[in-house]
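Notes continue from the previous slide.

Worked example: a multi-chain complex. Inputs as given:
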Amino acid sequence: MASTELPVGTADASTEVAAVHHVPLWRAYVPVIGAAVVLALVPVVIGDSRYLMGLAVLGLAYAGYGVGFNIIFGNTNQLFLCVGALAGVGAYGTTILGNELELPMLVAIPASVLVAALLGAAFSWVSVRRQLDVIFVGIVTLTFSLMFLNLLLGQRELTGGETGTVVLYDTGIVGARGLGSYYVFLAVLVAYLTLHRWLQRSHVGWAFRALRDDEVAAELAGIDVARYKVLAGVVGSAMVGLIGALYANYEGFISPTTFELGNVDVPVLVMLAFGGIGTLLAPVVGSAVFTAVDEVLRPFSQLRITVYGVILLVLFLGFRRGLIPTLGGLVRKLTRRG
Amino acid sequence: MLTVDDLAVGYGDSIAVSGVSLHVDEGEAVAVIGSNGAGKTTLLRAICGLLPTRSGTVTYDGDRLTGTPAHRVARRGLAYVPAERRLFGGMSVRENLELGAYPDRPDAARMDLVFGLFPRLADRRSQHAGTMSGGEQQMLAVGRALMSRPRLLILDEPTTGLAPVLAEEAYASLEALRGEGLTVLVAEQQVPLALDLADRAYVIEDGAIQLEGPAAQLQGNPDVRRAYLGIA
Amino acid sequence: MAVVLDGIAYGLQLALLAVGLTMIYGLGGVLNLAHGQFAVVTGISAAVLLDRGLGLPAALVLGVALAAVLALVTDATIMRAVYRLEGEARVLLSLLLTIGLAFVIDGLLIYNYPFTQLNVRVPGPAIPVLGVPMRRGSLTASALALAALAALIVFLRSTRQGKAVRSIIQDEEGARLCGIDPGRVRTAVFALSGALAGLAAIAEGLTSSIGATEGTELTILALIVTVVGGLGSVAGALLAGLLLGIIYTLSQVYIGAYVTFIILLLAAMVTILIRPSGLLGRGA
């Protein structure tokens, strides 16, 4: 069955992949470097405010989630509605391993990231084997998210239940909550962006694009669709898991609501929708906008949710390709006429 | 009655049918013959409102039909029997026929006519359409189309999957229906049967009309005989 | 035994909640993730009207009507864009847009009516059923659900319009060729699904209570039942509802609250992995 174009701007992701292949190495990574430089200067602008620094780190974290989800959904059409849960696996994994088993951070983090990666692999592999439609992948991962949430709430002795759990071990530079922490997150994000760009430029990027267009045709053309989907699932899930783990260490405290669907998956969707799902910088741009909007709306408590709903509606009714790509297209059209 | 003028129909970037013009007068039987993939189905589906058209017009009784959605085309007196039949497998023969008359109440007289035409259906009134054989399903599909009292019956390859005996029976029913005043437009790969039934015929290949004329004339045409009648 | 009866009662409510969702999917290949919010709208509006002094029947009827109207508006606006797409794109867009709608409704209701609850009390002692005393509220809710579901089944099986609905689910093109307008039918059924969600909310209000924060949970329950029963199958929703209702109450009594929800979710996950078409859905 030929795939239909999804209502989210993956067309731009394909254009990006094509464009990026024919460009010399250094030019391909300019956006990454540019973003890195801009983001590196943020602490300078922020100054001393610990609160704003906390927001900035949160923004970086969400951008990290975005890159992971971008690779999974934006690149291979796997609707993993479990970003929050995967982050939670990373976060709770590290915390529990560190607290209960007293494993050092540098062991606990990779261990929990591995679990997240394995989960991603499992979801991808099962979806391919059972030939699940996008919607079913979504429902399976959604149910996993909810199960995970309930597990966290239920296993109180281990996870602290609703009230959450405190990180008791030494978190080094990450938990120091100073400039260092910010740059750790930034380094990770830049690494993610670099990896994404590298993937786009490699044969993997072509394979992703082909299987996005038409899975059956790609399979017939000799592309091992299963392998690439699992690859995307593993890489993306690991990315998300790592951010979750780092964030747990940074905050020193985690609770189930931090990783709820409404707090992670939905904002990530909105962020990417803004910037164009599948494109490299969408997570960065989207996160910046979203963090700002979230802050502005903070005093409105529950009405924030309504505003996000409206944003979702407007974005997906009017700007299917993403706000930025649509505006970009408009600009190109206008400048061409001139 | 039905006029198609310079019609073009496409899928995505490709054009499946272009520059097709044909007409069907009241009371006639017209055949559209061509090989697999020639564009017959695309043409019929476009006429019936199941496919959007790129350019050209379709007129029915002097009124514009182009762009009319399928359910309204059906209500205007054109009934289409697709090659896949599209029956309601989970419903009985009787229910399928009743729905054919939608939005009107099913006419008992009409149902009797259909059962008279296809006695085998009468025997299976309560049987679920999904459990019937190919031949019976074909009969049901035609019967369902008749329930709306159409003036023009359009059929796409009615003999698909039918044994020769059943195919002949199908065309015999069409002949009988013509006797009742029904106008028929049929697309067919099994050319001999179609040309026997039809007054006129069009030959379509590669999405365009290649030949047209009275059926007898086409039956005698050496190219047609070679290509479609298997006669060297 | 008491547990099983409770399970059946709850199961009927689940079926009532899910049947609208599954029909919409069967008719148009779309998922309405604001379904639970439609139910909550009924609950809250009925509660508010009761507070203002309106009589119980009127408040309930208006509440249900409001949900139906809301559904109609949703269909006329959001779903228009959704139906323009096909296949996977369509269902994905329906997901995204209805999530947005759910957020809009949730935010407004939780902000304005954070403590409002619909709680319909049926006075009188418990009535023994098969030797087990059942609370009147629970029995009333079951009766309501049973009546609504029965009416729906009669509608679908015996009326021309109901058969038209089924015909679209079975073969949309065939239905078009019979002169049936899928667009009109989808709109009507969407409104109906809103009303059914509203009735489910009333049933919830009879057995316990329903408030503004429960929208998402109701949507998820409806989704689970729909998936297990088979997307698009009304009979499936009924069967799955009853089954899951019994599993739910058994699990609540013998295992525990947190695990119960996990079990329901597991049921949905296992269904998709083993037989995506659900219990009574067609094909694979």
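Summary box: Residues 10-261 of chain A form one domain. Residues 124 and 230 of chain A are 5 Å apart (CA to CA).
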